[in-house]
UniProtKB/TrEMBL annotation:
<keyword id="KW-1133">Transmembrane helix</keyword>
<feature type="transmembrane region" description="Helical">
    <location>
        <begin position="93"/>
        <end position="113"/>
    </location>
</feature>
<dbReference type="InterPro" id="IPR050382">
    <property type="entry name" value="MFS_Na/Anion_cotransporter"/>
</dbReference>
<keyword id="KW-0812">Transmembrane</keyword>
<feature type="domain" description="Major facilitator superfamily (MFS) profile">
    <location>
        <begin position="24"/>
        <end position="248"/>
    </location>
</feature>
<feature type="transmembrane region" description="Helical">
    <location>
        <begin position="20"/>
        <end position="37"/>
    </location>
</feature>
<keyword id="KW-0472">Membrane</keyword>
<dbReference type="InterPro" id="IPR011701">
    <property type="entry name" value="MFS"/>
</dbReference>
<feature type="transmembrane region" description="Helical">
    <location>
        <begin position="148"/>
        <end position="172"/>
    </location>
</feature>
<feature type="transmembrane region" description="Helical">
    <location>
        <begin position="179"/>
        <end position="197"/>
    </location>
</feature>
<feature type="transmembrane region" description="Helical">
    <location>
        <begin position="63"/>
        <end position="81"/>
    </location>
</feature>
<keyword id="KW-0813">Transport</keyword>
<dbReference type="Pfam" id="PF07690">
    <property type="entry name" value="MFS_1"/>
</dbReference>
<dbReference type="InterPro" id="IPR036259">
    <property type="entry name" value="MFS_trans_sf"/>
</dbReference>
<dbReference type="InterPro" id="IPR020846">
    <property type="entry name" value="MFS_dom"/>
</dbReference>
<protein>
    <submittedName>
        <fullName>Galactarate transporter</fullName>
    </submittedName>
</protein>
Amino acid sequence: MSNGTTMTTINTTVERKTRYRWVVLAVIFLFYLINFADRTNLGVVLPMIKAEFNLSNFEAGSLMSFFFLGYAITQIPGGLFMGKHGTRGMVSFSILGFSIFTYLIGTSANAVMMKWFRLGLGLCEGPSPVGGSATIKNWYPPQEQGTAAGVFMGASSVALMSIPPIAVWIMVNYGWRHVFYWFAIPGIILSIIWYLFVHSRPEESPYCNQAEVDYIRNTSALDIPRRQIGQPQVNQWAGWIRLSAGKK
């Protein structure tokens, strides 16, 4: 009777793991979708901007290159910062920053002003891919990281398919400036969502229980037998080398 009671007690204390990491993946997907949308929407409205500001092809191209200049500047420093302080604050700041600069691009009075806003957009977007990749590494066990990375990178393809028709519709009905005004809103909202719900590590999240944390951290041990499979082959080759040396 006591054994049955003990087994019942043990079973009731086994914690069923949460699946909050998949909620995190949904937020990561939206994050990179918005990130990619805010950098590519300029290409859709560029003909209207060229006509309004009387830009040459070279000047129009410089609007694109200023973004990538800022993007390159902050990627490495952003990665170093997140390596020391975690991804939560930096990614939230990055989303808020590139959303604000997206809005400011719509307020540009001339091409020079727009170039500086595009530089600011690039500076804020630079840490984004690093932050997304680091979040995936922290939140998923090795056997799920490929799936998570595929979803993360797939957001860019979804953006390329969906953003042009949306941007064209806004531009035709409200003007090219409203493309940037409208596109800024989702990012501002998502920056708050990221800070509240996507912590740097699952151990820090109140929505991820200990069972899920253990699953994420402990399943890396499953790779050990696969790495050890090659060991007998190494010993076999070492034996052949010693045998050949003895014959000489």
